[in-house]
Amino acid sequence: xxxxxxxxxxxxxxxxxxxxxxxxxxxxxxxxxxxxxxxxxxxxxxxxxxxxxxxxxxxxxxxxxxxxxxxxxxxxxxxxxxxxxxxxxxxxxxxxxxxxxxxxxxxxxxxxxxxxxxxxxxxxxxxxxxxxxxxxxxxxxxxxxxxxxxxxxxxxxxxxxxxxxxxxxxxxxxxxxxxxxxxxxxxxxxxxxxxxxxxxxxxxxxxxxxxxxxxxxxxxxxxxxxxxxxxxxxxxxxxxxxxxxxxxxxxxxxxxxxxxxxxxxxxxxxxxxxxxxxxxxxxxxxxxxxxxxxxxxxxxxxxxxxxxxxxxxxxxxxxxxxxxxxxxxxxxxxxxxxxxxxxxxxxxxxxxxxxxxxxxxxxxxxxxxxxxxxxxxxxxxxxxxxxxxxxxxxxxxxxxxxxxx
Length: 405
Prior knowledge:
This protein has 12 helices and 14 strands. By secondary structure, it is an alpha/beta fold.
């Protein structure tokens, strides 16, 4: 196999990826380029520059991708009302295709012939990063150190740092016992006592949400404005996609909304228990379904619901850049031109309720037809008799013949 000239590494600036920089330099004898993305994880990313420089990295990319993440990945996903296995709003999954895309773009820009990441050999992220990379650049080489090296514990990583003069920043306070991943849409927790699915999460674990018991005693109301299936304003104030998510995270979080505790089926085959905080996403899912209930044709809405589990599975498993996901996205987006209007939500102690929805131009709700009062001839109730008998024909025929199935 040809010797590598340059590798682009997805670099967080933390312990693992700092070790990976030196390990790549030492084991592959080539230049390493680092790429650090701000996708709303809530931590400063600029310090990664100094760490990369101290490791001898000459080409350093640090980018604010919050708007691109929200507009081109999160919002399209929510147009489909996407939920994996009934509960997971895919906060980690949907961030990976953007990182894979930028890794490949930077590789092309810098003339690199390989990319690298810090995902472990047990998780889904290795699959997501690599499927995306191969879809966008089929001849790219991918280096996954966790599948190659023997540094399989924190002690070994720290010893490697000491032996190779790698600076390790020590944070004040106690280290979290959980493996966490955060971005604009969510924060996830795995490991520690969560590895026992019977153990209740410690209240101190949660970072973004107030406990429902401690949330305000009075409800919060807010109105979301939809344009072609996307939220464009909160309480009439126009906001960018990232601005929408940031604002809703704050409002929902202080009302104790957005916590999920699930056991999910990883694509690599194992079951894994994870806890998630997705405050904004919880509101977005509820409100989007509400505005669609008013504006979408019945059969279109039902077809979307049938397609959604497959769409969610594609995102979870790492197939964002696959043709089948793009075909589904085209179909989903085609339904959204009529999804316009407003939804009013009531937030109270961990729960969110839809208390109003309206669409002046695209509502299919006709009060003259739906009313229990006099409808002035808008609906002929006697027509229902023939409708019912036609639909009962096969049932009656089977019953006459004594058939059960």
